[in-house]
Amino acid sequence: MGEKKVKIMKKRIFLKVMTFGFFTLLLASACSPKTGMTFASGYADDMVDEVAADWDYALLHIYRPAGAGALVGYDVLLGDEVICRSKNKWKTTLEIRDFGQNMLWASTESKVELPVNFEKGREYYVRCGIKMGIVVGRPTLELVSKKTGKPQFDAIKVKD
Questions:
Q1: What would the pLDDT profile of 68-105 be if each residue is shown by its tens digit?
Q2: Contacts of 25 (CB under 8 A, 6+ apart)
Q3: Strand 100-107, strand 74-78: pairing
Q4: Chain centroid offset of residue 61 CA
Q5: Which domain holds residue 73?
Q6: Which phi-psi region, left, alpha or beta, contains residue 31 (left: φ > 0; alpha: ψ -120 to 50)?
Q7: Integer CA distances (angstroms), 101 to 41, 42, 156, in order
Q8: Is the pLDDT of residue 145 over 90?
Q9: Are 50 and 129 within one domain?
Q10: How many independent structural domains does the chain possess?
Q11: Which of 65, 78, 81, 91 is the most buried (most CB within 10 A)?
Q12: Predicted local confidence at residue 32, as pLDDT
């Protein structure tokens, strides 16, 4: 075998080993207790907070801080039901009694989905927003931790 072919084979083996190592590291960190991330839930444990063991519902705090697309509003749906309308500098809190895996979603010129596994007695924070789009803008939905979400949620002053 020629020297050039040996070098090419060594490079291919090196790339395969590096790729395997990267994905092994990614898998290990994604499932580690330190990050709190699991493939079953899809989000970290610190994204939800224990509220009260005697509640027969979960609390869902949905908010949209000031930002781009101030004039654009959109409906937020849970499954097939509209649960609220996201507007600039806006917030609401809802009681959720449909436990288990659910899909929050919104649509303007494109659709965005956020799977959430609701559990009784827990509190969830979802931050809404708008990304630049071609015509109207694209909605964003992001599940955030209580540490991040609560101060942002509380900072929004709703006009009466």
A1: 777 788 999 999 999 999 999 999 999 999 999 999 99
A2: none
A3: antiparallel
A4: 13
A5: 45-155
A6: alpha
A7: 9, 10, 29
A8: yes
A9: yes
A10: 2
A11: 91
A12: 36
Which pair of structure tokens corresponds to residue 40? Answer: 């079953």
Tokens in use for 152? 């942002």
Question: Among candidates 113, 94, 97, which has minimal Cα distance to 105?
Answer: 113
The neighbour count for residue 92, using CB atoms within 10 Å, is 16
Structure-token match 């097939």, residue found: 80
Question: H/E/C letters for each residue in the chain?
Answer: CCHHHHHHHHHHHHHHHHHHHHHHHHHHHHCCCCCCCCCCCCCCHHHEEECCCCCCCEEEEEEECCCCCCCCCEEEEECCEEEEEECCCEEEEEEECCCEEEEEEEECCCEEEEEEEECCCEEEEEEEEEECCCCCCEEEEEEECHHHHHHHHHHCCCCC
Q: How far apart are CA 122 and CA 41, in angstroms?
A: 14
Rounded to two decimals, the pTM is 0.67
Half-sphere exposure of residue 12, counting CA atoms within 13 Å on the CB side? 6
